[in-house]
Amino acid sequence: MDTEFTFPRRRTMSDSPESSAATRESGAAVRVPAPPLLFAAPLAATLALHKWLPLPLPGRPATTAVGAVLTIAGLALSGSGAATFRRHRTTVVPHDPVSTLVTKGPYRISRNPMYTGLTAAYVGAALWVGTWWPLIIAPLPVLATHRWVIVPEEEYLARRFGDEYERYQSQVRRWL
Questions:
Q1: pLDDT tens-digit map of 39-80
Q2: CB neighbour list of residue 89: distance below 8 Å, 6 or more residues apart
Q3: What are phi and psi of 131, to 5 degrees?
Q4: Where are the domains of the chain?
Q5: pLDDT (tens digit, 9 = 90+) per residue, 79-92?
Q6: Which of 14, 29, 37, 54 lies 20 to 30 angstroms, CA to CA, from 130?
Q7: Does position 160 have pLDDT exceeding 90, yes or no?
Q8: What are the contacts of 169-173 at 24+ separation with CB within 8 A?
């Protein structure tokens, strides 16, 4: 049985790096309503799976401690990214237009500290709980976030901010 899963065609704007009215009026063409769900949903599903079909990690209690630290650090990094957006009076909602290119705070070391933090928290939660299940599928939420969120955001920011964003891209890594 061959079935193909496709998303509706993404709306596009002018390829001009100039800030056009169309670019300012809409945000990135992100393909998910709430990007954190790309991490939360698989984590919840795999933790539930662990209840019915345990696949425990070795190395307890060390993995518990490392997992707790990684989870807290990841959530702090993600929260710091969101707080930095708020301080600069721009939106964290990728579908909405941004008012400024944020390059301060955690955005000095990562272009995507919120998603980097969610990735760290996801891995940390798996270690903290002590199950392989979330780690086995960990590439899926990362790849989905890259394709359905980060790429459209970067395309939007390149159109919206032009050379300024290109300079930022050349100076700061996407993840870490």
A1: 999 999 999 999 999 999 999 999 999 999 999 999 999 999
A2: 99, 100
A3: -130, 145
A4: 39-50+58-171
A5: 999 999 999 999 99
A6: 37
A7: yes
A8: 169/111, 172/103, 172/107, 172/108, 172/109, 172/110, 172/111, 173/109, 173/110, 173/111
